[in-house]
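Sample A.
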Amino acid sequence: MKIHLIHSQITLEYDNQLSLLSHLENNGIFHEYQCRSGYCGSCRVKIRKGKVSYKEPPLAFIQPNEILLCCCQVEEDLEIEM
């Protein structure tokens, strides 16, 4: 799958082996986070295209156009506002 970061115009390949947050960090892209488990919501970003799911519903409040980088499972190519 492809993850396109709109603001930085970067596109990365992604395979759901690591969290999306960890994958971004491994590629030199750092984003705010606190808990890494869906509790705090610090890693929320807006999604423009694509679909994610969650193994466990996150406790952090998110809008329909937001995802949590730390705990989402990517279902299809994404465009996110980063």
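Sample B.
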Amino acid sequence: MGFSLKVKTKTGQHILRDVSPSLTLSQLKSQIVEFTNCGNPDCMSLLVGFPPRKLDVGPEESLTASGIVNGDTLIVEEVTDVQMVERQEDVLLAEQSAAVAGDEFAGLLMKQVVPADNSCLFTSIGYALNGAVNTDGGILMRQIIAEHVAGDEVTFNEAFLGRPNREYCAWILRDDSWGGAIEVSILSSFYGLEIDVVDITNTIINRFGEDKNYGQRIFLLFDGIHYDPLYLESLTGGHPRTIFPIEAESIYIQAEQLAKEAQASRQFTDVNRFTLRCLVCNVHLIGQTEAQAHAKSTGHANFGEV
């Protein structure tokens, strides 16, 4: 039985019916072009899921292998020739830098997807430190943060935290509380390494611990609401690498390139516009600001995207 797929293009939304699961990605792109008249399949990038992720499979891979299932929504992004040239130049620069640095860093920087729960920041840091996805690691990190904040009420005052020190400590220990810049900064100090957050929305890298002159760093990819760790898939084989010396400039260049590519294909969430529903009282909210205000006034902190 064929798939039904929703396809969003710059011309609007379409529905493809009776799509064979055995179609290759290349054939699907040709079918989309024929159905929607949206351009050249060779300059087409397909995104799927939430947050939208690029389909990183070969053109001759089947839809089944790509992970596409019946009812999925595909977002079609057209990549211009200029963008393709810029990306090729950036990749070449990264490869040249890797060659200068030595074979140790010859490889491709990739994203390790972690569960999209309220502890994705802590799970991502845990993966970068230990090389495994362990959703229980957040318990210890929350305790580390709470103890650090409770021990310095001058620095971590109400104006800095947005709530009283004691209230914040109780809040961060809850498994439905999201981590952000404050928590990243504390964990950078505790573990003694730089944590570089690759922000897709602004295509910038926020370096936590940069002023401490740490010798090593890890990278996290941030799409506006979710964190995933980055790792190096080596060209020479071996285990994926997640901790890098500060001097490995080729890795930093690749992280910048990842941000540019993800931003160009809109693999980020506009936190000022996305719609949430409070799963406690079913109130609909627009953007991160409303969600935070609702959480502060009601104590509700369990949200789902609409």
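B remarks: Residues 81-101 form the longest helix (21 residues). The radius of gyration is 21 Å.
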